Amino acid sequence: MLAGERLTADPSGALLWPAGETLAVADLHLEKGSHFARHGRLLPPYDTRATLERLQAVIERLRPRRVLCLGDSFHDADAAARLDGADRARLAHLTALTEWVWITGNHDPRPPAGLGGTAAAEVRAGPLIFRHRAETGAVGEVSGHFHPVAAIRVSGRRVRDRCFAGDGRRLILPAFGAYAGGLNVLDPALDGVLARPFEVHLLARGRVHRFPAARLAPDGG
Prior knowledge:
Layout: E1 8-9, E2 15-17, E3 22-25, H1 32-38, H2 47-62, E4 66-70, H3 79-82, H4 85-97, E5 99-103, E6 118-120, E7 122-125, E8 128-131, E9 141-143, E10 148-154, E11 157-166, E12 170-172, E13 183-184, E14 199-204, E15 207-212
Parallel strand pairs: 3-4, 4-5, 5-6, 8-9, 9-12, 10-13
Antiparallel strand pairs: 1-2, 2-3, 7-8, 10-11, 11-12, 11-14, 14-15
């Protein structure tokens, strides 16, 4: 629950708000692989396709009326120009299926035109606020930006994976992009963003697992 609204953390890393018929995803970072390739780090150039295939599967399964992409959907200003024809066509198909909003992020302050959807700095709907980066004092806020992951020891082994992180006032979504990476929720960068005690919904083996912050381990711990 957030601001009195029931939200569902999907194992894919997407968030469903059933009452608002809304699906939210954060940090797609499309064309991150090609960005690194241009700078001498050769990665398999399939991250955009993998990300869009997963997103299409979630949309077809949950059938939202509206899709909100919470910023950093494109890894850089030239990312859209590097989309190949098949990925561009898939993206155009997806944006035509629903009311689609590109929320601006620090990587994509001006989402590219010609790919469908509309752009906004944030979306306010009922008691909820959807934006890219958490703001101090916000209540009912859904955001991305931090790419949260959590680590926990279970049955003598360490599990580390993407997670949703919330403190009752706000919820931070995991990065949806295939190459997005992650930041441990216990990292000092999140001090002051998530109030203690917070909890996470850890994504592991196709399921969502709920843990309090007290159960979590830092990286290297």
